[in-house]
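User: I'll paste a sequence; please echo it back and then give the predicted structure.

Assistant: Echoing your sequence first, then the prediction.
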Amino acid sequence: MKSHSQLVRKIRRFFGAFRILFGAILLLGSPLLIFSSDSQLLLSTPTIYLKAPSVSFKTTPDGTKRVGILNDLRGQIDIVGVSKTDRSTLVFIALTLLWLHGGFAVLFFHLLWRLCRNVENGQVFAEPNLTCVRRMGVALIGYTIASFIVGVWVNSFWTVYAREHIVIEGLTVIEPGLSAIMSGIDLEGVSFDFGGLTMGFVVLALAEVFRHGLRLQEEATLTV
C-alpha cells in the first residue's frame, strides 16, 4: 500500500510541475508579447491559399490550344516587424492562442494533480474525484470546440490581412471553403479534432461509471 502511495505522490508532483511550467509560460509570455517592440515581432501566417490565372499550354502539333487551371497553390509568409496599426491586432491574436492552449494545459494538469492528491489521501470513490473527472471531460470538449473556432477566425483574419497588405504579382488570395476546413485537407491548425471531442465524451462516460460506483459505495456503507 505504501509503494502505491509513493507512486501516486510522484505522479502528483509530475502533474504539479507541468502545471507550474505552463502557468509560468502564461505569466511570462503575456508581458513579453505586449511590451515587445515592433521589430521583434516575427509572425508566420497560417497557410494562405492563392488563385493563379489560367495556364496556357503549348500549341499541339495539330494546332489545338489548351488552357489549364493551377490548383492547390498555397504557402506561408513570415512577417518581420509590423506597423503600429497592425500591432494591437496581431498581439491580440498571439495572446488568444497563448491563453487558449496554455490555459487548457494549466487547467487539465491542475485537475489531474487534484485527482492524484485525493487518491493519495485515500479518497478514491469520492465526490471531489467525480467532480474532477467531469471537469476534465468538459474541458476536453470545450478546448476542442474553442480550438476549431479560434483556428477558423485566425485563418480568416490572415486571409483578409493578406488581401489588404500583401501583393503577389499575378496571384489572388482566396479563402478555402468550409468543406476543406471540416475535412482538414492541407489546412494546418484548423481541422476539427474529432479525436479530442471523442476523448472528452469518453471521459464524461467514465465519470458516469465513477458516479455509479460512488453510489454503490454509499449504499454499501448505509447497509453496514
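Residues 178-189 have pLDDT under 50 and may be disordered. The CA atoms of residues 180 and 186 lie 8 Å apart.
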